[in-house]
Amino acid sequence: MKVEFGNMGILEHGKDNKPLSLKVLQFLLLFLGLGIALSILSMCMLRFAELKNVLPVVQSRINPCFQQQNSLENWIRPLSNLHHSMNDAELFWRASFVPQMKKLPFKRTPKIAFLFLTRGSLPLAPLWERFFKGNEELYSIYIHNLPSYKPDFPTSSVFYGRQIPSQVAEWGDISITDAERRLLANALLDISNEWFIILSESCIPLHNFSVIYRYISESRYSFVSVFDDPRSVGRGRYNWKMSPVVKITQWRKGSQWFEVNRKLAVDIVTDEVYYPKFKQFCKPSCYVDEHYFPTMLHIQSPHLLTNTSLTWVDWHRGGAHPATFGKADVTDKFLKQLSEGQRTCVYNNQTTSYCLLFARKFSPSALDPLLKLSSKYLGF
After folding, report:
1. Which end of the chain is more exposed for a tag (fewer CB within 10 A), N or C?
2. pLDDT value, residue 342
3. 268 and 293 in contact (C-beta within 8 Å)?
4. Which GO terms fall under molecular function for this chain's record (predicted)?
């Protein structure tokens, strides 16, 4: 009995130790596995740190073969994203780059840059969408609005993602001039943009895209309204402290809604002679946006200007602002008169009645009748 009891005791004791040994073995294996995993992770982290130091060198050797960062295509391809962190000084400097060789080593399709200076939305966007449709290779769009405005264009819209880094711009203030120069500078970053036209959210095209493109592209001159106004609202705004850089005999007035070629656009964003004088001495009652561009361009390049604007406005109703047209104004007779023209002008040194390509100011309520009648009178 003792022996059996002893054997039984031994057997019972063996039964108790067997699962305990397995648990110890499992724990040791788990600990060993964690150690190996941590060792591998440490090696990977050290390798990653080494690669970070080597990566720029490796990329510099790989990129020419695969990404071609220094290829010609990289220089001439339009920016897919208009957002950047450049301030105005940096942007204007970058936009001032001008090729010195006239013969291009690549095929270039010149485009019109449509520069929309707005406070917020573009209520007439559906009309412009119809105007642009089918001409994607011949235009670019840039929008300057208040920084606080968040656009909600659908991804299918031609206006989607076309907002440039903007700042607050006030009517009659130097900030309006800054906004227009900012639009021009951003558009100059695309080497294909050859002509630049400033528009507002209340502007509409008076003809189809083909007519407007041909009219602008075949013109020998840029369309900037420039005239000498002897009245108090003209020469009366001149500040004698601007002399001798700007003399009163050079002082000009005109519309801020203008069209310029690439050469004049570069001249505007690189101007360090006249702009400081206007910023210092043409204060709000001077309405700098009506005088800076006409005066500066008249002094520098009078032979390149038509002295007329492509954008029609109606000042006959009086006041500080031109007339605004709403739903009730947009009739068959009204659009017929606008599209056919009621004036004569000089185009490439020849008299023509084809003078106006755009019109303003149209309120949001005018959109429906404009869409209804555009194919009949505007050609799109």
Report:
1. N
2. 67
3. yes
4. glycosyltransferase activity
Q: 187 by DSSP, 3-state: which? A: helix
Strands of the sheet with 204-205, listed across from one edge: 204-205, 358-359, 311-312
The DSSP bridge partners found for residue 346 are 351
pLDDT digits (tens, 9 = 90+) for 313-336: 998 876 678 899 999 999 999 999
Task: Find residue 260's DSSP bridge partners.
Answer: 196
Query: Do residues 164 and 82 touch, judged by C-beta distance below 8 A?
Result: yes
Place of tokens 């405005």: 149
Rounded CA separation 51/57 (Å): 10
Q: How far apart are the first and last CA of the chain?
A: 114
Single-letter code of the amino acid located at 279: K
337 forms beta bridges with none
Cα maximum dimension of the chain = 136
Provide, for the chain, the percentages of residues in helix, strand and coil under a 3-state DSSP scheme, each rounded to the nearest 5.
Answer: 45, 10, 40
Note the pLDDT tens digit of each residue in 55-68. 444 344 434 444 45
pLDDT given at position 45: 65
pLDDT digits (tens, 9 = 90+) for 102-161: 888 888 999 999 999 999 999 999 999 999 999 999 999 999 999 999 999 999 999 999
Pairing verdict, β 111-117 and 139-144: parallel
115 near 187, Cβ under 8 Å?
Answer: yes
Q: Helices H, strands E: what count in the chain? A: 11, 9
For residues 206 and 131, give the distance between their C-alpha atoms in angstroms, rounded to a whole number. Answer: 10
Domains contained in the chain, CATH given: 78-99+106-313 (3.90.550)
As given in the structure block, the two tokens for residue 75 are: 């220089």
b vs e for 238-251, b when ≥16 Cβ sit within 10 Å of the residue's Cβ? bbeebeeebeeebb
**C-alpha neighbours within 13 Å on the C-beta side of residue 177:** 24
Sheet holding 111-117, edge to edge: 139-144, 111-117, 193-200, 259-261
Sequence-ordered list of residues with C-beta below 8 angstroms from that of 117, at least 6 positions apart, any chain: 144, 169, 176, 179, 180, 183, 198, 199, 200
From CA 176, how far away is CA 292, in angstroms rounded? 11
